[in-house]
Write a structure and sequence with these properties.
Organism: Alsobacter ponti
Family: Belongs to the PEP-utilizing enzyme family.
Distance between the termini: 21 Å
Subcellular location: Cytoplasm
Shape: globular
Protein name: phosphoenolpyruvate--protein phosphotransferase
Oligomer: single chain
Largest sheet: 8 strands, parallel
Bound molecules: phosphoenolpyruvate, magnesium ion
Radius of gyration: 20 Å
Amino acid sequence: RQEQYRKLRDLPCVTRDGVDVALHLNAGLMVDLPHLAETGAAGIGLFRTELQFMISERLPTMSEQIALYRSVLEAAGSRPVTFRTLDIGGDKVLPYMRQMEEENPALGWRAIRIGLDRPGLLRAQIRAMLKAAAGRPLKIMLPMVATVDEFTRAKDLVARERLHLDRHGYEPPSDLRLGVMVEVPSLLFQIEEIAARADFLSVGSNDLMQFLFAADRENPQMANRFDALHPACLRALRLVARAGEKAGIPVTLCGELGGRPLEAMALLALGYRSLSMSPASVGPIKAMLLSLEVARARETVDALIDDAGGLATIRPHLAEFAEKH
Ligand code: PEP
Ligand code: MG
């Protein structure tokens, strides 16, 4: 099987009906970078910057942050990298940072909320990214954004940092894109406003599912209770894809969903053309898409979710479709 997947690596990533798809990797440390060449992935779709903070015994200094981001960009070469700003809090605790006891940490003081309340931390990180990407393209995305206003405030902060570097004579990135993770359901109801302001959207399906169904992603009892192929979830995902299309900005998905063949097939049917996943998933997903006719899948999936009739999942129908085609 591994051998088979390796053979697919150098084939163009195109569906049977000629739709180009980009498969990216989720990463968080330098040890993940060799997987780019091994899998033939198009780039790093999600670089979880909190990993460096979690394995460190104290807050990483600005120069340590710059060094890591620069090594990542260098190792990726011409392949694009999307850095996500710190996503701490919730299940990701930094032992050296004092945090309050929270009854519901997943719903608490975390990610961009900390970034906006402690702008020194976010500013240092943005500055480190901008400096590390001198003369190269840079993509940054913000986790756990719940309102347009949060995005706007973070965007202003990025603009100020950029200006600061210009004023001090640093070479800026050759291209800077600021995106937003769609993982808090409130964004679904502000999707056009956010798509008008962001350079790209990236669905964090792990958290989006958790919050959509109010089902703890860490609780094994909840693991199989709600299916990602439930029409409610697919409608949410379709809404995001369509908003991106309408606004003319790229939409990608970087949760675990994109790494499972049947789910990825549904995503392609809903209009996703870029997915980010763990390295081991690239082979199976590529094998799936090489044999897929997206147009046909789209008809099937649209029909199933428009007329869901109380279905708990479209999984069996989709499996049948996959079997037939
Ligand atoms: C997600 O929520 O889907 C995601 C990609 O981010 P994380 O798993 O790091 O929360
Ligand atoms: Mg998340």
